[in-house]
User: Fold this.
Amino acid sequence: MSQLDGPRLSYTDDDGIHRELALVEDSPRVTVGRSPKADIAFASDHDVALLHAAIEWTGTHWTIVDEGLSHTCTFVNGERLSGRRRLQSGDGIGIGSSMLTFHDTPAGGDPARIADAVPTRAALTPAQQAIVVELCRPFKGNAAACKPASNQQIAERLFVSVETVKTHLRTLFSKFGVEDLPQNRKRAQLAERALQSGVVTDRDL
Assistant:
């Protein structure tokens, strides 16, 4: 479980140690690169440029920017970054052979922070969208007493393996900011946030 609340980057450093860096508005620019002067340095990753990319606070949200700073490109959730992109909780950032993950876990259940942790439909892959729709399907018609669909039910409806469902759910837990909740609450909270935010609508169900 993370020791930090709020916006942060998690990654594994050159020594194989898991690190977390809190993102604070007072330090609105965090650089990533191979240079030891970078805020996050991947000195042994030769696919990383000296100054590869930057995480910047725009006044309302955190973004990642790669304005031609590197020759090997920057990727967010497997998509090549061009210019600037707003970061959503759970986004995976590929820099050279290294990976970082952006988190924005709500602290103390603050509604405003919870809203910030919920991604948009556009931030989900088609597979992730299909998984979360099936997870929420028992709630069709506002059936408040229902429980989210089980992994087995989701797998059968989508003709995929249970392990595939679990893999996508782990990513969705992170994207929706529920990865630090107790295991027995994650699924219900994911379904609730997906429905309340409009990521999943009645039409989807």
